[in-house]
Amino acid sequence: MAFRFRYTLLASVLFLLPVAVVAHADALRPFKDDLFAYPATLSSANNGAYTVIDYRELRDINARDQVPERRVHVQYVDTSVRKVQQDLLLKTDAGDVRHVAVGKTEGAGIIVLYLHGQGGSRKQGVDDFTFGGNFNRIKNLMAGNGGLYLSPDFTDFGDTGAAQIAALIDHYAEQSPGAKIFVACGSMGGALCWKLAARKDTGGRIDGLLLLGSLWDESFFASPAYKRRVPVFFGQGSKDPVFPVEKQETFFRSILAKSKSYPTRFVRFETGTHGTPIRMTDWRGTLNWMLSKAP
Question: Edge-to-edge, what's the strand order for the sheet holding 264-270?
């Protein structure tokens, strides 16, 4: 179905930050890389595709946050990025899609979407101070590299929600036809990641999937995204009570079993729980790898 768009501005931007357009696979310039670097690697396998990271709550939450799980210490964030943050409404045949956009809404070199899990909203993905400041980092990475970051609302985790996100991607892809597009899905949002991969339109357009404390879907192997060898990243806590790490690891290994050269990576945060990958995933390292492998 072709979607018709009417674009409504809910909150305007007062200033613009200077940016550099992404031109090469490794072009994402650093943002606080020293603070967001992974802790020690405990082990690795599959030629580095599978990695176990030393995660510790006392260090990675209590010492990192001024108020644990609510407000990270100020050195982890740069809130000046709010100058290029807009709260928008996109009207489509699939329904209204309220979303927050950070960076270049036209002519972006890279587009990253974050799809929240059960009980979340578009506000989760742009909260500067929760999840250890990691959302502030992706916002700054996109704004500082000529990119666009999107955090949308959607109706559900089924076909309607997928149609809404597909319409959102279609709209911004038209505004930035040269952009690589990556979709990150937290928790239950992963259901949308797999649905987008399976659709003919988005499966043929997206350039990478990031599953953060999320679920698996065997239908991926029949999807347009899989056939295009779209890179897939998995981040999972070893003590995730919602989606057991063993099942996600099994799915990761099944991808490599079908093709040892398939571009996929798995980062296991040892002792981490459900929200750990959202807090700890290295956005820049992961996206630079995906840019180098994108179809």
Answer: 6-9, 85-92, 95-103, 148-152, 110-115, 180-186, 208-212, 232-237, 264-270, 50-54, 41-45
User: In this structure, which amino acid lies at residue 100?
Assistant: V
Cα–Cα dist 145/140, whole Å = 8
- Higher pLDDT: 117 or 14? It is 117
Say how far residue 249 (Cα) sits from the centre of its chain: 19
Mean pLDDT of 149-163: 98
DSSP E strand stretches across 207-263: 208-212, 232-237
Phi, psi of 106 (to 5 degrees): -140, 140
Closest CA to 262 of 236, 226, 286: 226
pLDDT of residue 18: 39
CB 95 within 8 A of CB 165: no
Whose CA is closest to 88, among 190, 211, 172? Answer: 172
The pLDDT value recorded for residue 6 is: 37
- Measured CA to CA, the distance from residue 176 to residue 82 in angstroms comes to 21
**Cβ(182)–Cβ(209) under 8 Å?**
yes
Q: Determine the Cα angle at 291 with ends 136 and 109, to 5°.
A: 65
What pLDDT, on the 0 to 100 scale, is given for residue 23? 41
Residue 220's pLDDT band, with cuts at 50, 70 and 90, is very high
- CA pair distance 112, 210, nearest whole angstrom: 10
pLDDT of residue 26: 52
User: How far, in Å, are 40, 55, 233, 281 from residue 37 at the CA level?
Assistant: 9, 12, 17, 9
At residue 41, the 3 state secondary structure works out as strand
* CATH T-level topology, domain 28-293: Rossmann fold (3.40.50)
Task: Tell me the per-residue pLDDT of 234-260, one tens digit each, with 9 for 90 and over.
Answer: 999 999 999 999 999 999 999 999 999
- Burial letters 195-234, b for 16+ CB under 10 A, else e: bbbbbebbbebbbbbbbbbbbbbeebeebbbbeeebbbbb
